[in-house]
């Protein structure tokens, strides 16, 4: 049983789970389900922009801007779809069934993008978007339901869960890159179809793993009262199929038009959450306000962090010296550096938060977010230095600089992302926790769409150059520094709105 001193009514309903390594046993089942889902998701991450340029632009660098915009829009919709997924899980079919339906759609989409046709490719991306919306925010919400509201292990539990995310993200680029470059293709002509199909297999493994292991949840995430009928599941599947063309259209209209749509969605979501918070009284209202403020800073973080899958990929491919004494470090493997850092540092950071909490000096949620922004900014500061002072005779920057960038960003990510997941389960209105988690992912999605627009500007019309990269990354440094400092200054006021939530 969780160890909260003053459990709420919702906390009282938490089953008496057996404990494994100091945490509820279902955490480890969810850990592995997320591991395989992230294997599928990150398996294609390194290849998407390179594939778009190679397959649909004949390999010309002029296709980089379009690839960046498509990648950013795809990620934005992946996270924005979490809003609807949260509502479906909260109100219609329950969390467990939502995860299973979402996994099925994601697997289908991953196999679809292996077909080298531009229209089918975007239709496959749209299918992944719909599936991810019903999977990603919901499994995170279930993790939160394993702990009482004031259980000090919550942040630690989410950080462990985050290791599952990054374990899958670490393995995926290594395996899919190896398959594409060594087994079915070559370094010059990677077999991208294999990348997408291997990721589809990983998604099917996630589906089967959760289907078998969900009995451990002891009723957490079952359908809402009156919603046990499978007819509702059929209706959701039919609705998802209808939504896929809408997602296809949003991918096709372009990132700038999509940004307007996402902004309207965010405003509508904020209004709905506020209405629910106001219904629950002053404390719930204030908590909702605090959560929405944090969401806006989350947008800034991901706008620059998500360069990893877009402009950083072209940077690694063209401007980083990857020759390590005769061995050319594959571009795909850079995507695993972040995960290595997370896996290595997550236990340390989790221990630090718990140790600081015992001493009464655990940083507040806003301060942790501020640290995340500042560490992200330091990564761009290093790139500024490398692009201005470390250019070699070959016109490239040293290998170690980009590796260091990923490690520095990872520290920032650990200060922010797992804490954000935990924050939503603490601050969102009780009846709309899944919807609130959707709001978290929508803010992430807006940041991702902006990341594509930013990466497109970095590449320019003719492709990335040292000068364009330096200009863009300099802007990133100043934007992140300013945001982090503002959040540090505003932290005391935001803490008041949280009413004791830490």
Structure description:
The protein has 502 residues and is mainly α. The chain has a single domain, classed as Up-down Bundle (Growth Hormone, Chain: A). It contains 18 helices and 4 strands. The strands form 2 sheets. It has a two-stranded antiparallel sheet. Strands 3-4 form a two-stranded antiparallel sheet. A hairpin with a 2-residue loop joins strand 3 and strand 4. Helix 5 packs across helix 6. The longest helix has 33 residues. The protein starts with 8 loop residues before the first helix and ends with a helix. The relative contact order is 0.15. The N terminus is likely disordered.
- Give helix and strand order, one letter per element, not per position: HEEHHHHHHHHHHHHEEHHHHH
Give the low-confidence spans.
Answer: 1-10
Judged by helices, strands and strand pairing, the structural class is mainly alpha
As for the CATH topology, it is Growth Hormone, Chain: A
Q: State the strand order across the main sheet.
A: 1-2
Number of strands: 4
Cα shape: globular
Write down the CATH class: Mainly Alpha
Number of domains: 1
**What is the radius of gyration computed over CA atoms, rounded to a whole number of angstroms?**
22 Å
What is the multimeric organization of the chains shown? single chain
- Average residue-wise pLDDT: 86
What amount of the residues lies in strands? under 5%
Q: Can you summarize the main beta sheet?
A: 2 strands, antiparallel
Any guess at the CATH architecture?
Up-down Bundle
Distance between the termini: 20 Å
What is the number of helices? Answer: 18
Query: Helical percent range?
Result: over 70%
**CATH-level-4 superfamily name:** MFS general substrate transporter like domains
